[in-house]
Design brief:
The protein has 732 residues and is of the alpha/beta class. It folds into three domains: 260 residues, no CATH class; 233 residues, Rossmann fold (3-Layer(aba) Sandwich), CATH 3.40.50.10810; 222 residues, Rossmann fold (3-Layer(aba) Sandwich), CATH 3.40.50.300. It is built from 35 helices and 15 strands. A seven-stranded parallel beta sheet has the order 5-6-4-7-8-3-9, sandwiched between helices. It has a six-stranded parallel beta sheet with strand order 10-15-14-11-13-12, with helices on both faces. A two-stranded antiparallel sheet has the order 1-2. Helix 1 crosses helix 8. The N terminus is likely disordered.
Length: 732
């Protein structure tokens, strides 16, 4: 039925349908916001009693004498202490009535004491953080982990949906209110001229918004997010297993929801106000990204976008790779088609897997004998090319504007301007409008090397960077390099420190490694297969990556523990590290128990960085390696409990700083098969067993069929490589 004109306006079925569509979209947006709000409130409800208990413990540990500091020594507390109230917590619990009963304590003193105690209490509420102890799950922490699990499982898509819903509701709500008269002919007739005009304009706005939302599939995004957020809570064990696998994501959410963000200046790397403001204003598109960012990570990505050619120098463990992927994803959303990542060969596989897992971007490996064909394919089809420093030298430098972003990982590898790899990177950096150098090695005290790196990014900044800048102190240095350099430290930006961060370091075996591995497979020797990557140290890919990890840990003042099942592997590692690090051990089964502890004590007491080598069976149980914050596992263990127990020896010191675990794995062989087979075991059973007293005492109790697993792997590898020979598959 055609619509009628009413005072210059027309209303009909089309207008009513447009308003109805807008109302449905608005309801869906409001629903997903409400579902998310309830999930967040569930976390807050679980967190509240845990936080209150932590605050109480903190206050119960503060002696009454501290109240003197708060009041600058004006209080006389002798009578209070003699009454048995020895802590600030005790004073608050006693309250004004009991305090007033203490001989010699008047009302004025009571008021002053309580006021000072409350100030300390408020400070504790602001600063105390809840730590989740995976080794001692209690009902309270379990409830918190289960509540967080809902939001972590919903993932970045749910957060994206909530953000889109909020923006849409803000625009759609007023339009729906103005469009009210257009929902019926009588209402339109009774409305005044101005209201009719506003109603028809609002209908047009609603129609445009709804069409835009449907093109972006926002109704589908909202619906899926609501489903994910309303999904029933996980079982306790399932939630704990997921927490172990993704603890950083849980802690990130916890920090956000608890409202205790890190210091803003620290998040922003203490940049000058002008640069920080420009970075904050930089939009960051997440449509091609599959991972949520912490606040400091989002700032790092924005810094790279706003400043165009920069060096990200965050301390190891803060997620530089994720920040780079966020930049790549943003530029892809803006229409850029070609990107290049240059990195050491030891992390090439990791880069490939991280980009595939955390973004929707296409990845091409430009490495190996077919690298030139791969390069031609990348140039034609676009995406992210991942190559090595040495391979880069063989590729022609791009034309201007051809590459959207050049990422150079471990950029300190090109600090020598005379090296050919440095010259190749410099040529590419000059031709690219955007460049992101990344290094976890602090460069502040190496001005000459730092200046050479900065010169590739901004010759003007390099020209004015001199020795005086570092001599004047870190503030002056940061100001001088602020246009191109951003560095944050763990203790500055992780208010809720993840107790454990685990990284699988996938390495491509060198030709020499492959040859040694093939010989072990032909012999049917499972244990030789597991340590083949270390048999020829001069060309060992795993050993090269291990040295990089230890070197970076040392540069950041951190101690490292290196575990292996094999004594001969530890011998190879000791020889490789001896020239560059202070090495203790190896701690093996033949070392008497008393001597083991002395080794650990010497390692812990050594000033500065150090490395402890340990056979995993000997050090996995009974020792607390509290000084170590970096752990390297030379190979995957056939008994997963040995890995968990070994890591737990260092994990216990995670109260001070997070523990970073690197598991060295080789692609395409025994490591990959072993990892996959072990993952196929029932995760929930493994998680339960790891927490049981039996598992702690006797790892063999929960690891079964090791010999059968070894035989299967040997047979499959012999079939894959087309070799046969002797068989000696026992796991040992």
């Amino acid at each position: 039925m055609p619509g009628r004109r009413e005072g210059g306006g027309r209303v009909g079925r089309g207008e009513r349908d447009a308003v109805a569509r807008g109302a449905r979209l608005y309801e869906a947006a409001q629903a997903v916001a409400g579902d998310h709000g309830r999930a967040v409130e569930a976390v807050r409800a679980a967190l509240r009693p845990l936080h209150d208990a932590e605050v109480k413990r903190e206050l119960d540990a503060i002696p009454v004498a501290r109240l003197q500091d708060v009041t600058e020594g004006r209080l006389r507390l002798g009578s209070v202490e003699k009454s048995g109230l020895r802590t600030v917590g005790g004073v608050l619990e006693a309250g004004p009535y009991r305090l007033r009963q203490i001989p010699g304590v008047g009302q004025r003193t009571v008021d002053q004491v309580l006021a000072a105690a409350r100030r300390l209490s408020e400070a504790a509420y602001e600063t105390v953080a809840v730590h989740i102890d995976v080794d001692r799950p209690e009902p309270g922490t379990t409830a918190l982990v289960v509540a967080l699990h809902v939001l972590v499982e919903a993932g970045p898509d749910a957060r994206r949906a909530v953000d889109r819903a909020a923006a849409l509701s803000e625009r759609l709500g007023p339009l729906l209110a103005d469009a009210g008269p257009a929902t019926g002919r009588i209402r339109m007739l009774l409305a005044g001229r101005d209201k009719r005009a506003r109603a028809l304009a609002a209908v047009a706005g609603i129609r445009s918004l709804v069409d835009e939302a449907e093109q972006a599939d926002l109704p589908g995004l909202f619906a899926q997010a609501s489903v994910d957020l309303l999904r029933g809570p996980a079982s306790d064990v399932e939630a704990w297993v997921d927490f172990e696998l993704r603890s950083a994501e849980y802690y990130s959410l916890l920090a956000e929801i608890s409202g205790r963000p890190p210091d803003a200046a620290a998040v922003e790397g203490f940049l000058p106000d002008g640069i920080a403001e420009r970075v904050r204003a930089q939009h960051l598109d997440d449509s091609h990204r599959r991972v949520s960012l912490r606040g400091y990570q989002a700032f790092g990505a924005r810094f790279a976008l706003a400043q165009r050619k920069v060096m990200l120098g965050d301390e190891m463990g803060l997620g530089k790779t994720v920040q780079a992927i966020a930049v790549l994803a943003h530029l892809a959303a803006e229409g850029q088609s070609h990107f290049l990542v240059v990195c050491p060969a030891s992390v090439l596989v990791n880069w490939t897997r991280e980009i595939e897992a955390r973004s929707a971007l296409r990845v091409t490996v430009l490495h190996g004998p077919d690298r030139h064909d791969a390069f031609a394919d990348w140039k034609g089809r676009g995406g992210v090319g991942v190559t090595t420093f040495d391979a880069l030298r063989g590729f022609p430098a791009p034309g201007g504007g051809e590459v959207g972003l050049l990422v150079v990982d471990e950029a300190h590898f090109v600090k020598n301007p005379q090296a050919r790899r440095s010259q190749a990177v410099a040529r590419w950096a000059e031709r690219c409008e955007r460049v992101l150098f990344m290094t976890g090695t602090p460069m502040e005290n190496r001005v000459a090397e730092f200046r050479d790196l900065v010169r590739m990014l901004d010759p003007g900044v390099a020209e004015f960077l001199g020795e005086r800048d570092t001599l004047a102190g870190s503030v002056a240095f940061r100001k001088a390099v602020a246009p191109v350099y951003l560095r944050r430290n763990q203790e500055d930006v992780l208010t809720e420190l993840p107790s454990l961060q685990q990284t699988d370091e996938w390495e491509e075996l060198s030709a020499s490694d492959e040859e040694a591995y093939r010989e072990a497979v032909r012999a049917g020797n499972f244990m030789a297969m597991r340590r083949a990557a270390y048999l020829r140290p001069g060309k060992s890919a795993k050993l090269g990556r291990l040295r990089e990890i230890v070197q970076e840990a040392g540069e950041n003042g951190r101690k490292t523990v290196v575990f292996s099942h094999f004594r001969d592997v530890l011998g190879v590692v000791e020889e490789a590290l001896a020239a560059d690090a202070r090495v203790f051990g190896p701690l093996t089964g033949s070392v008497p128990a008393g001597r083991r502890q002395r080794l650990v004590d010497d390692f812990a007491g050594a000033p500065g960085p150090a490395v402890l080598l340990a056979q995993i069976q000997a050090a996995g149980v009974g020792l607390n390696l509290q000084a170590a914050s970096v752990v390297v596992l030379c190979e995957p263990q056939i008994k997963p409990t040995l890995e968990h127990q070994a890591v737990a020896r260092a994990h216990r010191m995670g109260q001070v700083r997070p523990v970073r675990v690197h598991r060295l794995l080789a692609t395409g062989g025994v490591d990959e098969r072993l990892v996959r087979m072990l993952e196929d075991k029932t995760r929930l059973f493994d998680a339960y067993a790891r927490r049981s007293a039996v598992a702690e005492a006797t790892p063999d109790a929960v690891d079964v069929s090791d010999a059968e697993l070894a035989r299967r792997i040997v047979e499959e590898e012999q079939a894959r490589l087309g070799v046969t020979g002797g068989r000696d598959a026992a796991p040992g």
